[in-house]
Amino acid sequence: MTFDEPLVLDPRKSLHLIGIGGVGMSALAGILARRGFIVSGSDNRDTPVLGRLRDLGVHTIVGQTREGATGADQVVISTAIRPGNPELDGALERGQPVYHRSQLLAALIEGQQKVAVTGSHGKTTTAAMLGRVLIEWGRDPTVIVGGDCPDLEGGNYHLGEEPVAVFEACESDGSFLRYGPCSEVITSLEADHLDQHGCFENLRRSFADFIRLVPQEGFLAWGGDCSALAELAPTARGRLICFGLNGPEDLSAADIVEEQFGVSFRVLVDGAEGPACSLAVPGRHNVTNALATLAAARELGVPLQNAAAALGQFRGVGRRFELIGTLGDALVVDDYAHHPTEVAATLQTARHSFDRRIIAIFQPHLFSRTRDFLEQFAQALTAADAVIVNDIYAAREDPIEGVSAAAIADRVRELAPGLPVSHISDKSDIVAAVRPMIRPGDLVITLGAGDIRRVAEALVQEA
To answer: Per the confidence metrics, is the pTM higher than 0.90?
Structure first.
């Protein structure tokens, strides 16, 4: 599949989304339905997301068969849907046009003022922050993010009346190049998604091509703490705004105070003191996300003081240091961290913000990512006081011979002798193992982009 032809939206044509329950696909389905399009879709299991789509008139199917997309004028898939999926194979055999979700997103935002938010880390939170700030200021953009955000009425989207689109642009497969000229916020650039790009240099080239899409009348807000971006940012044609914590950025921060489930700081503008900002989400990494948001919001006409105040109302994104509940005096938190840098940042936030023993339950995501970053994952996990490693969540991949979650646990033991470390395959066995481990005042964190959240939920439910 080459996805060469652009998708042209026509209210008379029906669209069928394979994997409609996914966080990216469901947002697009919701927007389509609310714009009056005929939408259907399928997913492998029923979820509350499918229920919300049904309430909007979307026909949803649980389970995927060769006949599932029959009759649709246009079929849309994400990168997670691969050849061999029966519904996709059936559509191809019938000659139905098949498009990538990025082509659908590009069609939905065509003709609008576009602000794309991307980067190796923090793009979901930053896009959601920017959406909240603009809405709080009285703007009415369309906002599309890759997570569940209580600040957006659609959960992962807000359908606005103004011709402005703030959206999360995924770099994982290079599909962000399909969105055409747009202003951009790039938080960071690190090696990741090497299963798609092959090597870091290819990923870097993809970002270089993306940055060249910034029009002269647009802007690029970029993370100054990232040396790779420092080399690429000057190639953008639009206005450059640098943000970060460690250098002479246009927007920086001072007086950072980390608190439980929050962080406060003072904004610095070209080194001079600016407004104070208090976030209801924790960690220095969220200070960086907030600075990215402030940079973009100011370019979009929101005064810095007002933008900083609006950030204080931001309620976060699901699975980003999300408090699931308590188990006695212990806290149970879930986090989407699935890259070594993210795991390290989450555990650092836990260490700096909470005076608690930390039990980390990590589920690696993708065999290729585990292979590529095993050493870095192990290093990051040594910051916890006890570690449990669950089996790899394969997602779109087939197993790779010799790559296993047990190898991460073994390496953590080598790096930190005496640190309690276990590899446990079954999630119910993890719950059974963790319960007697927990002491009053502990902090239990599930980490990963797969389904490890179920462990956190089971621990709280059984309390």
So the answer is: yes
